Structure formats: structure tokens, C-alpha cells
Amino acid sequence: MAKRKVVDKQVSILKFCRTGSGHEETLKKEVTVIDLVSDNEQESLFVCDSEEELPYQEERSTQFACPVCEVDIAHLSLDDRTVHVEACLVNPNTKKVLYRRIKTTGVVEQTKKKCDRRPRPPIPDEKILSFENHTIAVDAFCYAPHPAISVYLLTHFHSDHYGGLTKNWDHGSVIIVTPITRNLLVYKFGVNPDLLLSVDYNQTIEVPHTDLKITCLDANHCPGSGIFVIESPGLRYLHCGDCRINKPMLESLMQIGRFHKIYLDTTYLNPLYNFPKQEIVIDELCKLLQSKMETMQFSQQRVIDFFVDRKPQKFLIVIGTYLIGKERLAIKLAEALQTKIYCNEEKKNVLSQFGWPNLDNLLDTHNPESCQIHLAALPKLNKDYLAEQLKTYSRHFKAAIGIRPTGWSVRYGKPVPSLDAMVAAESPEMVYAAISKHFDRFREDNKARVLQIPYSEHSSYRELFYFANLLEYDELVATVSPHNQDEQLAMLREFKNYDRLCIENF
Ligand SMILES: [Zn+2]
Ligand SMILES: [Zn+2]
């Protein structure tokens, strides 16, 4: 078994901004990023490792701040750090749970901001889109009403975007949403459907009582997430909400032409975030699990096994999810392994809001033992949970594999050395090799293990490079860490000034 070592410690100074009691203060904090490099220097895409082999002692001695909420998470295990940061990125509500865990290990709990117990702040500039005659607000429901704004846009159903939106919300006359987001708002919060104007992917609508037109494209983030082209007679803006850039998206946007302003999701605008494309990861994971299944079925067919070994031969796959998100992975895996997906009633009700017949047909809420894929809440997906599941279904499964889809992970290591290193197309073979290496490290007696799979719902550094380079625009606005705008814009300018990339290589 390969022995891992910490090859390099990169110390990066990240600037953070904290909103204190009415004034803004920029803090500098030193964050140590551990770069794990595999024995094989060629394997630079990402490094997966099993928990036991990681050098905990060395890391425990350093401070490790969550890039989103700044809480010191050095006391958490590598897996828990990843879960924490993912939770911070997607759903601030889950922070509560994780903060409590941090508190028990000696870190002071942060004071939670409560949207409605203090006077609401005004809508920040980067959430206001001004045209010649009209102004609209994007993902801005948690702020004070704005005298000139009655049109609101909600890019997708994640709480850091819809926050503040309740069934009594009355700051505007219309909220532009996608059909899936509309269904979820009505189903989960009882928002008045008359307030919601939906625009489907690749559809253009006129915004009532304005001279604005809005076109929606798939954001490739969570179900129902959109990126929106908003046009007045003289201006064309693009708001990307949260998005994972992919080739169809880039091609559609290049066809539309020049944008006056693009509001971009820059969550992973950092050379450290070098993770492979989602579709490659899904395909290669399916291939791997399929081949493992075939091996098992073949061994089951041997006559001697039939008499000697009556033990179950299948493994259970438990996929960690949030309220919504990661469904594509579950669907593709279920299709590849020709099995159904088990989840509870409430989860099924949420998923049925998507109106995806292929997903509806795969879901089963009654026969967990006959479904090889189960959905579970991501924060509870660990070895103990898997062991418990395995005990419950011991007559049906011989092992349990937890799939933790994750974007940010200290395990993916190696920052991108230069822009040149990102030009060439990514290699599916390298992704397969890395996942397979991780899988093969499971010992036979390890019946319950968690496999960490790079499955980000935000764009990688490389994808942002292609986006900023290929599209035509006058101005870019970073919607993540707006206090850090200058640094981010400098990076994006560097992308733009690089020799024009070739979309075929994307
Ligand atoms: Zn955090
Ligand atoms: Zn989101």
C-alpha cells in the first residue's frame, strides 16, 4: 500500500471580509493549505485517500479556516472539513449543526445572523441590475424593500439565494423563476404562485410592464437552476447565479454575442480548485462500479460458489445528497447498474417537483432491499451509518459503499501550475485511474467505506478560464466574495488576455 506524505505546504493569505455592527472590516487570515501529492507525479488531477492513511498529526497543529465562514475547522477530520465547507457553500442552515460540533472541540461558536430580528440592510450593488428604464434585483429577498425595484429574479432553490423569501414576502410584484424553482417554492414555502413568473430553459419571455426580455439557460448547478440573459433595447446582461460551466452552455452564450456585463459565480476562482468535469466523473464512476458488479456476478456463477458461498454478492451504494442536488449522479448510476433508487417519502415528494419522468420511474420508497442505490442526507453519511445500513440489509448486500459527491476537498491537492497547463482537454482515463485506485484500496474486510467523488456544482478554475477567455463582454462582476473583487478581476483579465482558447478542447 502506498504511503502518503505531505510534500508541500502552501501558505496562502486569504482576505476575508466581515460585516460587523454596521461597519465593514477587512481581515487578513493565514490559512494553511495541505497539498497531498501522489507517488505518481503524473496523477495530478486529484488525490483520493482513505482516512487512516492521512497525516492527521501534522495537520492538527495548524490553523485551518473555512473559506466561507472563517471558523477554524482544524479540529475536524478531513472528511468533516469537506462536509463543513460544502454545507457553508450550499446551505447556511446546515452550519448550525456543524458549529455545534466545532464547539464541542473547543472553538467558540459564532453568533448567527438572523435576517428578521434586525433592520434589514439595503440590497447590495452586485445584486442590482440597472437598465435604461428599469432596475431588477437578483437573489435579494433578505434585504430592505427598494423603492425603484418591483421585479425580482431567483436564480435557483438554494437557501443562500432564496433566503428571506416567505409566503408573506411582498417587496415586489413579480419573481422570475424556472418551473422547477416555482414548484419547490410553492411546495416547500407556500409562496403565492401568482407572484411567480416562470421561464423555461432556452425560452425568452417579456417582463410585464417593462421593456426587458429574459432568456434562461440551464446553469448545470442544481435542478431548476438557471443562468439568465436580461436584455433592454440597448443593454445585454448575463447573470450566472450559481453555475457549473459546460460546453453546451458556452456554445449557446457564444452564439448570443457580446454582453455589456456578466455577473459570474467565481466560487472556485483559485488555482487550487483543479477538479475534473462532472460528466467525466459520472461516466468513469459508472464504468468502474459496473465492472466491479460484473466481476461479482461472474464469480457468483461459478458452480462451486453456488454450493459453498450463499452470501449476498451485491454491494449497496449510498449517495449523500442535500435537499436537492446530485440527482444526475444517482440517475446515471441507477441506469448503469440497472437498479432502482431507494429514498423516503419526503425526499420523493421533493424530487417529484422536478417533473423528471426518468427520475420518478427510478424512485422506490417501499423496497430498500431490492434497490442497490439509496439516497441519504450528506452530513450523516459516514462509516458508522453505512455499517448500520449493512446490518439492516445483511441478507441482501455484502458491502456498502458511500458516495460523497464533493466539490471542495483538501484531498484533490495540486494547484494548477500555469494557465498553459489547463489548455488541453481533460483525460477521462486519468479520472478512471484515480477513482479506481481509491476503490481498490478498500480491503476485503472493510465492508463499509466512503468514496469521495469530485462532483462540484460550481465551475472549476479551468472552466472559469475557458468562460472568461471565450466570451465577449465589456465588464465582469464577481458575485462571490465581492469585497475581494479587484483580486478576482485581475485573475479574470489574465484569462481574457490569454491567446484565444479553442472550444473543442474544453
Ligand atoms: Zn464554514
Ligand atoms: Zn447554489
Automatic annotation (TrEMBL):
Domain DNA repair metallo-beta-lactamase: 365-483
Keywords: DNA damage, DNA repair, Hydrolase, Metal-binding, Nucleus, Zinc
Top-level taxonomic group: Eukaryota
GO process annotations (BP): antibiotic catabolic process; double-strand break repair via nonhomologous end joining; interstrand cross-link repair
Keyword DNA repair: yes
GO cellular component, as recorded: nucleus
The protein's required cofactors: Zn(2+)
Family (UniProt): Belongs to the DNA repair metallo-beta-lactamase (DRMBL) family.
PANTHER family xref list: DNA CROSS-LINK REPAIR 1A PROTEIN, DNA CROSS-LINK REPAIR PROTEIN PSO2/SNM1-RELATED
The name this protein goes by in its record: DNA repair metallo-beta-lactamase domain-containing protein
Species for this entry: Ogataea parapolymorpha (strain ATCC 26012 / BCRC 20466 / JCM 22074 / NRRL Y-7560 / DL-1)
Upper lineage: Eukaryota, Fungi, Dikarya, Ascomycota, Saccharomycotina
